[in-house]
## 1
Amino acid sequence: MKALGNYEVWFVTGSQHLYGAETLKQVNQNSTQIAQALDSSTSIPVKVVFKPVLTTPEAITQICAEANNTANCIGLVAWMHTFSPAKMWIQGLKILYKPLLDFHTQFGRDIPWANIDMDFMNLNQTAHGGREFGFINARMRMERKVVVGHWAVDAVQKQIGTWTRAAAAWQDAQGGKIARFGDNMRNVAVTEGDKVGAQMHLGFSVYGYGMGDLVAYISKVTDQEAEQLVKVYSQEYSIATGVLENAANKNTLMSEAKIELGLRRFLEEGNFKGFTTTFEDLHGLPQLPGLAVQRLMADGYGFGAEGDWKTAALLRMTKVMDKGLEGGSSFMEDYTYHLDPANPKVLGSHMLEICPSIARSNSNLEIHPLSIGGKADPARLVFDVAQGKAVNAALMDMGNRYRLLLNKVDVVACEPMPKLPVARVMWEPKPSLEVATSAWIMAGGAHHTAFSKALTEEHFEDLALIAGIEFVLIDEQTNIHQFRNELRWNDLYFHISKGIFA
Ligand code: MN
């Protein structure tokens, strides 16, 4: 079973009647073979379903309408085996709502040097047929990913696989619900935003609740249920000796288990995909949910602290995209710097809520006071993160559009920090802390991010493309002068784009 095997993309091939029945039969056979190869590729986490070759405007319009109306179809992979006059595609592309990938491939990889003749030339027309398709997409300002290369090559299949992950996250977000317990942390700007715009452009909606709504669920959890869950904690995590023997600590864990069970029930009954909390509003709760949030994130829920519904939604999309991949993803915050000029780094963490999917090894379950909020001492998982490549992504409302900002980072080793009672990760941003942070600050990048060791910038760029939002990348190539101009030009682009694209 594929990691996202409940979803499918449709493989559609463009052609025309001009070539006659024999050629079209061949086109159909070749397309079937390519669709099957993609379907069985381990680099593509969804099903790839072959659809009969398209030769008329009516058939193209019909397949686009069917794709729109098929819930588990998350996009079209379109290939022009031969020339397919692109005016035939206008009506279909006009109504197509699902994501589109323009696959520019050719059935035969190599030119058969000794035998090439006009029959071969007439069958293998991608090189110009694909350009005709490219023109109509460009003319109609269709947002789509273009993948070029032979269909049997793994690197090519991987690009398609990455896009299908983004398309799955997009589909999951459509009609998706985020529960927001309490409101925004007072006076914080970046966690605010236009929820109507978010629903229009990203698909999810935010449901606000008072803490009493959640407390009602938590108070219904029985002691027995909580006892059972505490047993699970002791099986899954390292708990320091004596913790469970101490009555106050046991009480803390029981209370955390009740929070987890109540929160989980609330989210399941309401079919929520993510949630937010805020330590400024914990009325009726004994402590800020820590362990509970960590465990729910590990199960695939999106989360944002301090009322940050945008990051909760972004993390949910990240969790859909990383399904079945190694590395994990978490809610994250740029917390503290190590500013040694020879070796500058960022310490990423949060008050409690870091997802154990990114943990290097077993997590320690610990109970410590929280130096803010004035509530009982919360339980939390404490761990380190293994070295390797990672990305930090943030979603901001820029007033007239959403901006998805991404920085590539290297997770690095750090000195032991025995007194730090939270999960932590140390990274060096690309291209350097100085340039990356200047660029991030210039772009209005949030302090909350979705951090992923499983995904790359390509996943997020594909997602932004599908959503039609701005994507800005900070990587090895970033140059501050060009970056500042890119932001200015993007401002202009998003300001006027609706007016000129007709
Ligand atoms: Mn925070």
Note: The chain has 15 helices and 19 strands.
## 2
Amino acid sequence: MSATSIRAIRARRVWDSRGRPTVEAQVELDGGAIGRAIAPAGASRGSREAVDLRDGGTRFGGYDVLAACEFVRNDLANALRGQDAIDQSTSDARIVAVDGTPNKSRIGGNATVAVSMAIAHAAAAARGVPLWKHLAGDHAVRLPLPEVQIFGGGAHASRRVDVQDFMVMPIGAWTFGDAIAIVAEVYRAAGELMAEAGKLAGVADEGGYWPMFGSNEEALDMLMRAIERAGLSPGNDVAISLDIAASEFGRNGVYKLALDDRELDRDEMAGLLTDWLARYPIASIEDPFAEDDRVGWIRFGEAHGRRVQIIGDDYLTTSAPHVDRAAIEHSCNAVLIKPNQAGTLTEAHAALAAGRRHRFGTIVSARSGETEDVTIAHLAVGWDAGQLKVGSFARSERMAKWNEVLRIEEALGSSAVFAGADALPIQRVAKVFGKPPTG
Ligand code: PGA
Ligand code: ZN
């Protein structure tokens, strides 16, 4: 026994940003240190990601998590008691073994990720260091380039527009604090423009403005105008980033754009995106094709992988073997890291490490269902991911993460390094803009 041995694990049902139940785990160590973490929840999920255990039935629409909480209190607590919290990988291996399924479907990815993250928090508390420092060890860290949603669509806005996230990346900023200030100006300008156009209708699930647009492209135009109204230069100060989340409307190589009332095959879908890449300063594009459309992914990656960040989210589901495969087939050049897609911190970190080996961009990401939990802010810094995506610039479950990174930046003081545009796996973003489309 030592001060960092796990003594007890508790679970409680708490509530997320959509008002749905979720799992909070609390890990207590022999020396008295306590760590706590809350599982987030996605809405546009990849079919291969770890699944949340939900009770079903009618209570809270079937979303209750009482069974997952019981698995934390019993199976996980029993398996982990006496384990050294500092040794995350052994703890996570035990969690994986207790579940015993490839996708955490027995005890729930919500149970496993909450416990895995709470162990890390307890270990950091026992060592008396912030989580990011506990994770970084002796390695150098950078503050992440933020990727921030301005308009929310897709599954986060009742499919009001097809594209899920219209985002900005403040590539011209020199510090994280500046980057966030730039985003604040763009978000405010976008709100003014929406109000003036009579299109302000509140916000979507992740805090981006509810997209009252007549076409997907109108959102892109509005985003350009918002950047300019904020007195900033699109493509130089601020780049556009899109999460197409194409698995939500594409299947068997056919893409149904409801808003534009068009059905596209994979070549037409590629044509549409290529046209957008040529006309807008888009530096990053996530899930441009559905997770079942490997052919579409590979063609697009080969055509554009040198000049735009192409992120696999549903396509890679935070899985190291999938990242390795993507590197070989040239489908993506970046991986989204969502700890609850993997189910433990060790597995999520393995996906990030695989991305780094292949010189991929690595982006730590929140889910659309979030809470006040700020673990991912610490992961982005401590793992030196280079990029962080947590939704928009409103709603406190989002702001909590941005504000936590500001605190970390302040704590680093003069040794703080901002990853900025260097975090992107492409050369210079400005060159992207205005280039004619390639085949
Ligand atoms: P989700 O979406 O959390 O609803 O799955 C986020 C994303 O697609 O990046
Ligand atoms: Zn996504």
Note: Residues 430-439 have pLDDT under 50 and may be disordered.
